[in-house]
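thread from #wetlab-drylab

HS: before we spend reagent money on co-crystallization trials with flavin-adenine dinucleotide, can we at least see a predicted complex? here's what I'd submit
DV: go for it
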Amino acid sequence: MEALGHGGADRGWLFALGAHWFGCCAPLSRHATPSQRATWEPGLHDGSLVGALAVTEPSGGSSFDGMATAARHVDGGFRLDGSKTLVTNAPDADVLLVLARQFPERGPLGLTMFVVPRTAPGLTIRPIATTGLPGAPMGDVVMQDCHIGLDATLGAPGAGLRVFQSAMAWERTLLLAGFLGAAEHDLARAAHALADRNALGHQAVTHRFARMHLRLAAARHLLHDAARKLDAGREDITAAAMAKLVTSEAVVECARDVAHLLAGAGWRGAPLDAVAAVADTMGTLFASGTSEVQLDLIARHTLAVARRP
Ligand SMILES: Cc1cc2nc3c(=O)[nH]c(=O)nc-3n(C[C@H](O)[C@H](O)[C@H](O)COP(=O)(O)OP(=O)(O)OC[C@H]3O[C@@H](n4cnc5c(N)ncnc54)[C@H](O)[C@@H]3O)c2cc1C
């Protein structure tokens, strides 16, 4: 992902790819039954099918307390009712992982993840316009008496939070690797542009480059640390939150720095559209959970460790 960004891939496309791989394929390969695997994995892996993860609701995505999408067990399967929003890839998705409340009395342990085919009766997907990442299609997902089969639960009934955490461990760790590469790509292009106009003699300019490099290097360390844990089979939610928070802030700061450095040229969109890059990166502060949500996770872990006897 980092190399794709470094090579100049569009941030929206990188985001869509990351949402497919880490939001959908990763939790599927970890939690799917053999028959779910046989149905979905070949197409998702060769790219002939597109996946999405539908969790956020119009009333707010930071907390599950108010999650209203309901799953009812009926003869021969389940009925889903509710709405999801800001779902990356939804307009193109062939399959969606949908988090719904199956056991209202059990709080967070009453959520179940469902594998919902686009063709499920009662499912409607509406594309939505966004101010950044135009290359990542985004949509609302509405379920009205949406019928899915008995074999549609991903993981155990009531274990939806566990499946969601699995998706977040992968998404928060890896989705922004492409943006890290894209920031390095933009830094290099800004350096060439400023050298061409003899602007690298100003310390104010060179120090800005130094700070950009430092932020990206620090983010890369945390990201690779969390990625190594995934490689070792550990879905470490704190390491993922740290990687996501620091990387998102680093790529936003870098996009702003590039806009400052390129000044009028960046505003005009040549040699690169610095203003669009700011809008594209801003979304990373909210996607896969806002910075406040990541800080909550990091604080919980930090205090638990600090208070050990
Ligand atoms: C580019 C992009 C891609 C996305 N892709 C997807 C996707 O594929 N699937 C999907 O389901 N969603 C997706 N989202 C939605 C994203 O997960 C939500 O935007 C995010 O979870 C925040 O929810 P919200 O926007 O409803 O803000 P809210 O939850 O309404 O939060 C508003 C503010 O209050 C703070 N806040 C609220 N509650 C709490 C709390 N309990 N603890 C700490 N702070 C809190 C938030 O930090 C924020 O500052 C995407 C968003 C973006 C920007």
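DV: Residues 19, 23, 52-56, 60-63, 84, 86-88, 133, 283, 286-287, 289-290, 292-293, 296 surround flavin-adenine dinucleotide (CB under 6 Å).
HS: ok that's useful, forwarding to the group
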